[in-house]
Amino acid sequence: MSEAKQPIKSIVTPSRLEYDFTPGIATTRFLRHMEEGRIVGQRCAECTKVYVPARGSCPRCGVATKEEVEVGPNGTVTTFCVVRVPSENIDLTLPYTAAHILLDGADIPFFALIQECDAADVRMGMRVEAVWAAKEEWGPTFENIRYFRPIDEPDVPFDDFKEHL
Amino acid sequence: MRDVAVVSFAQTKNVRRENRRNEVEMLIPVVQEAVEKSGVPKQEIGFYCSGSSDYLAGQSFSFVMAVDCLGAWPPIAESHVEMDGAWALYEAWIKIQCGEADSALIFSFGRSSPGVIRETLVLQLDPYTLAPLGADPVSLAALQARALLESTDHSEREMAEVAARNRSNAKNNPYAQLTGDFDVDELLAEPYFVSPLRKHDCAPISDGATAIVIAADDVARKASKKPAWIRGIDHRIESHQLGLRDLSQSTSTSLAGEKAGAIDIDVAELHAPFSHQELILRDALSLGDDVKINPSGGALAANSVMVAGLTRIGEAANAIWDGTARRALGHATSGPCLQQNLVCVLEGE
């Protein structure tokens, strides 16, 4: 027994599955509106909350949502973070700001980037607007909105958006 | 033990491809129908449990998104199994037995159409030796069918009879996908698909969803005029290694049936995605000719993966409710070649 065998530390078993994704009726309509440069959510008939992007249901009431409501394009920063660590998937200059933005007319905030603004100047209640990609680049995707930037409007008082944190 | 009953059952129509609605949009009407039919006020439902697989949706945590169909506010007690919904029902039954809830909504959803189900199911196999070979579920079932045909008196004709009877029964089931009258001789004249299986021996590929409400004791009696009481429920699993099992038999089904008290059965709803598997299950449960098998058409008429087992329990409850059966059996299977089996025995008042 001169040579001990090396332990098997790993084996490679390639595996690949492909899927045809179905966004569903509500999200398909959201994406179609995005293609036209509009941000459209859906209102729950029971609790009247407006969801954007809509997925076809009110998660709070468990009922289907149908009524469409155009929201934005301006909104309010409800909370934010300043990212100072690099990530493989994100090609942005550090530090950058990621925020929850409550679009005007919507009841739930969504995640987006804030640019054209020093990270130290971002604050809760700050008013922002969507910056869209060039029209010829629009497709049925959220990526039509490149980021949000500050606008010259007074901050929204905390009490006015505290229900939407 | 607490008396627990199935008090309602709702399902979507099973279709080859649901590519308009997402999972939540499919589930909302089914969950609402099950709650309404149950007679249990929605705010009083004490526990929610679902069965589904992210591998079907191609999306991690797809079951968390499905919670959007429930109206989880105020926050609800919820759980999930990466298994057929029949096992979600088992978990809910345990929860009720432990006294932590008096009623529960169980739901399951499965769309095979986004992917290729014969490839997706390969990933449930041993990742070192079997999955790399691409051993697909039809080929594995064919190995099992061969083992059955060569070691018993069962025949390909019997398998064709099983397929024809299920699809004929399914003509009365508005939720079924593959229905009609088929001539056994004509079926046997068809070419093999994966020998000894022909196309008719295999379940269709389906998209669908099912929801069931169960309730205990007086909650069930108050909510329902005709509760379908769960008299026994048990599940057993065999080795993951196919070579270790006698594929021509289902010992796990026999044991689960014995523990669940599967005797004096009038109607049995068997989850057999391949025709020969119904023969194995009937033998395992000693179901004689006097037992009506799969009035719904079974999995050979509609086989939404992760759903078809829970649907069998719902269809067994239907047999109690429509008076076809005093005692009915719902069976669910999981894994390749009937690896894991659940038996649920229901009884009317």
Describe this structure in words.
The complex is a heterodimer of chains A (165) and B (349). With 165 residues, chain A is mostly beta strands. In chain A, 9% of the residues lie in helices and 31% in strands. Chain A has 2 domains: 22-71, no CATH class; 72-165, OB fold (Dihydrolipoamide Acetyltransferase, E2P) (Beta Barrel), CATH 2.40.50. Chain A contains 2 helices and 10 strands; from the N terminus they run H-E-E-E-E-E-E-E-E-E-E-H. Chain B has 349 residues and is α/β, with parallel strands linked by helices. Chain B has 2 domains: 4-116 and 205-226, Thiolase/Chalcone synthase (Peroxisomal Thiolase, Chain A, domain 1, 3-Layer(aba) Sandwich); 124-202 and 229-347, 3-Layer(aba) Sandwich (Peroxisomal Thiolase, Chain A, domain 1). Chain B has 12 helices and 12 strands. In chain B, helix 11 links the parallel strand 9 (267-269) and strand 10. Chain B is globular. The model of chain B has no long low-confidence stretch (mean pLDDT 97). The A-B interface holds A 11, 13, 15, 17-27, 55-64 and B 18-25, 28-29, 31-32, 42, 55, 57-59, 65, 67-73, 111, 113-116, 119-120, 123, 127-128, 131-132.
Number of domains of chain A: 2
- Overall pLDDT confidence of chain B: 97
Counting helices, strands and paired strands, the structural category of chain A is mainly beta
Task: Compute the number of strand runs of chain B.
Answer: 12
CATH topology type of the largest domain in chain B: Peroxisomal Thiolase, Chain A, domain 1
Strand/helix succession of chain B: EHEHHEHEHHHHEEEHEHEHEHEE
List the helices and strands of chain A in order: HEEEEEEEEEEH
Q: Gyration radius of chain A, to the nearest Å? A: 21 Å
Q: Which bin fits the share of residues in helices of chain B?
A: 25-40%
What is the count of helical runs of chain B? 12
Helix amount of chain A, in percent? under 10%
Gyration radius from CA atoms of chain B, angstroms = 19 Å
Let me know the largest β-sheet of chain A. 5 strands, antiparallel
The fold-level CATH name of the largest domain in chain A is: OB fold (Dihydrolipoamide Acetyltransferase, E2P)
The biggest beta sheet of chain B is recorded as: 10 strands, mixed
What share of residues are in beta strands of chain B?
Answer: 15-25%
Question: Mean of the pLDDT scores of chain A?
Answer: 93
